[in-house]
């Protein structure tokens, strides 16, 4: 095994308690060394995703989705750092010193993608392999100094993308990018982005613009308006001062938008999205509400008469992540970052819950 000196103990933010009272204080935990097909990555920066907050606080328990024992209480799935140990079977692919990123799909045992099922072999949908493991959900995540990853499914970080930028792109960035693709909106067509100034929304504005879409950003207040316009939005609708958002979208677009990406995990966002579309338009569901009564869709008569499409989108494939990173390497997309440390997990979760976290949170791991 190729490696440098790796300590036996490390710091990690570890979940204690449950529900809304759960916390993730830093503790000393054991460093795991890689199996033959794995690599060990020293995490320099990790993003803090809304999904991490939901898992730490058991917000999806009603859906049967909760952190598993195998995580050892360590959340996180937006890690970027450097390879410090390489398993024997990965010597041909990775070497100590390579820059690498860990995303949602990450193993800790001897499988991630099985490589044999329909989803692994169709070339486009390995995220739905029934044998996959997920960082911070069914395997220990990136809220630790040293994290294990399957060398076959780890992202190589390109030059021109800093670690603090790459971390959030591992989930937030690729989620927004893949949602833009799922919208089927073509260059020159209109896409509406509610919550455009948020952690996912501000990524979506940039990717949509770079992909040639005409962006209508929806958010509240002059600061969000300035940010969205700076990032590439052609139009901005302030939901705090606009009484009829659907009418305003129609005024701008004549017939309604070609696509809407719902990043807000609220009943109101999902209920209003179909009303912003023209015939044949597409709603992309991205935000994951904790309220099990929230549904993505529209009354059947509206779906049928307007021939609307309702699709879901979750993170992205290996190829999607490489493509999302390339936009940053070419200077087209850059996350707006709120920087902290591993000790700030609880603080930033509270700010996220209060809606006061600007851009995307990224934590320095030391």
Automatic annotation (TrEMBL):
Asked if the record carries the keyword Membrane, the reply is: no
Residues in a coiled coil are none
| Enzyme's top EC category | oxidoreductase
A GO term for molecular function: metal ion binding
GO CC annotations, alphabetized: cytoplasm
| CDD domains in the record | CAD3
Q: Under which EC number(s) is this enzyme classified?
A: 1.1.1.1
What is a single Pfam family found in this protein's UniProt entry?
ADH_N
Q: Does the keyword Lipid biosynthesis apply?
A: no
Q: Which InterPro entries match?
A: ADH-like_C, ADH-like_N, ER, GroES-like_sf, NAD(P)-bd_dom_sf
* Annotated SMART domains: PKS_ER (SM00829)
Give residue ranges for domain Enoyl reductase (ER): 17-363
What cofactors are annotated for this protein?
Zn(2+)
**Annotated keywords:** Metal-binding, NAD, Oxidoreductase, Zinc
Please, which domain of life does this record's source organism belong to? Eukaryota
Q: Which family does it belong to?
A: Belongs to the zinc-containing alcohol dehydrogenase family.
This chain's protein is named alcohol dehydrogenase
Q: Which organism is it from?
A: Cyphellophora europaea (strain CBS 101466) (Phialophora europaea)
Q: What is the lineage of its organism?
A: Eukaryota, Fungi, Dikarya, Ascomycota, Pezizomycotina
């Amino acid at each position: 095994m190729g490696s440098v000196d790796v300590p036996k103990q490390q710091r990690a933010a570890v979940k204690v308690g449950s529900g809304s009272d759960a916390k993730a204080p830093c503790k000393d935990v054991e460093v795991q060394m890689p199996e033959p097909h794995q690599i060990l990555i020293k995490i320099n920066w990790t993003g803090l995703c809304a999904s991490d907050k939901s898992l730490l606080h058991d917000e999806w328990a009603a859906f049967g989705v909760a952190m598993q024992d195998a995580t050892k209480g360590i959340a996180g799935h937006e890690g970027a750092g450097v390879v410090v140990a390489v398993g024997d079977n990965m010597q041909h692919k990775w070497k100590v010193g390579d820059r690498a990123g860990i995303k949602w799909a990450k193993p800790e045992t001897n499988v991630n993608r099985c490589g044999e099922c329909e989803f692994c072999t169709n070339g486009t949908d390995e995220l739905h392999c029934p044998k996959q493991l997920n960082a911070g959900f069914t395997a220990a995540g990136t809220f630790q100094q040293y994290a294990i990853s399957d060398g076959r499914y780890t992202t190589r970080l390109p030059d021109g993308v800093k670690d603090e930028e790459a971390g959030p792109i591992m989930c937030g960035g690729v989620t927004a990018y893949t949602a833009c693709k799922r919208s089927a909106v073509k260059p020159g067509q209109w896409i509406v982005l509610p919550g455009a100034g948020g952690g996912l929304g501000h990524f979506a504005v940039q990717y949509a613009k770079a992909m040639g879409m005409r962006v209508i950003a929806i958010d509240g207040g002059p600061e969000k308006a300035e940010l969205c316009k700076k990032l590439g939005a052609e139009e901005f609708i302030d939901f705090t001062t606009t009484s009829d958002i659907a009418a305003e979208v129609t005024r701008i677009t004549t017939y309604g938008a070609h696509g809407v990406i719902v990043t807000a995990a609220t009943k109101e966002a999902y209920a209003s999205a179909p009303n912003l579309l023209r015939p044949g338009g597409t709603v992309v569901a991205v935000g994951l509400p904790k309220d099990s009564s929230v549904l993505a869709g529209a009354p059947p008569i509206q779906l049928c008469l307007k021939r609307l499409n309702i699709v879901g989108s979750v993170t992205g494939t290996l190829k999607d992540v490489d493509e999302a990173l390339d936009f940053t390497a070419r200077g087209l997309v850059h996350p707006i970052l709120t920087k902290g440390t591993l000790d700030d997990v609880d603080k930033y979760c509270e700010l996220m819950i209060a809606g006061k976290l600007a851009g995307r949170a990224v934590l320095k791991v030391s």
